Amino acid sequence: MAQADSTRVQTVIGDPVAEGGPVTRAKLEEIFADIQSDLRYDHELNGCLNCGICTATCPAAHYYDFSPREIVQLLWTENLEGIHDAMQEKIWACAQCYTCAARCPFGNSPGGLIMLMRETAIKHQMESAKNVLRPFSRVMLKLISTGNQLSPDMINKDHFADWGPNISKVDAPLKLLRRAIPMPTLNTTATAWEVNLKTSVELYTIWEMTGVLKQLEGIDENLFDVITDIMDEKREDWKDFVAEQQDA
Predict the structure, then answer these.
(1) Which among 29, 146, 163, 183 counts the fewest CB atoms within 10 Å?
(2) Which residues pair with 13 in a beta bridge?
């Protein structure tokens, strides 16, 4: 009797988060290739004794279904299906404290590897990345449009309701207090400090040239459009400023 022509290698894998149906083997290989091709990959992954020290010292592992050791094992054994599955939820539980890197006897950095996986999830516009980043759209808008991640007027009861009674500790006359600070760049509540127009345009150019904005467009197109409009205005303002200086 002829032997059946079969293989144990999966050609597709179901995605428990996205609604796009099964993921092809070629796509799984592409995702892993993007992770592995990063210059940081060989520095962050040197082998694994499966000792579990990283998981034992991981704060997130105590509260979530998450194990740094599992992440390292998936990458070390090139388990494409497991890697893709971990990128749907587990990698977002990491707090990036790098306690794992400090403890690993092999010099691995599970936290660093997870950072690569997160960046790849964003690049491939995975639904998990969109869901995680969506609540941070306000912070991302603030960062890219002003050069500041947070500002004093963002720390209030409406934006930080999860702080509970502690939020009252920062409920203060911010404008008055900020005017009392000697440095003029800090006399503002709309930003943590004032970023001049040239710096703002330069930061936007860096994000544009390095592909950050292209990734943002794939994750949140509405936010991308708002930021693009803001920076187009700032670029025009900068051109006008330069022209005025040349005419003076």
Answers:
(1) 183
(2) 23
Confidence at residue 189, expressed as pLDDT on a 0 to 100 scale: 82
| Beta carbons of 201 and 157 less than 8 angstroms apart | no
Structure tokens belonging to residue 60: 């997130």
Are 117 and 7 in contact by the 8 Å Cβ rule? The answer is no
Q: Which domain holds residue 45?
A: 12-124
Residues 139, 51 within the same domain = no
**Per-residue confidence (pLDDT) for residue 20, from 0 to 100:** 56
Tokens of 219: 């994750």
Whether 10 shows a pLDDT value over 70: the answer reads: no
In a domain, 147, yes or no: yes
Helix (H, G, I), strand (E, B) or coil at 12: strand
Find the length of the chain.
248
Residue 1 pLDDT grade (very low, low, confident, very high; cuts 50, 70, 90)? very low
Among candidate residues 72, 206, 66, the one with its CA nearest the CA of residue 147:
206
Q: Tell me the pTM.
A: 0.74
CA distance 149 to 141: 9
Closest CA to 198 of 147, 140, 141: 147
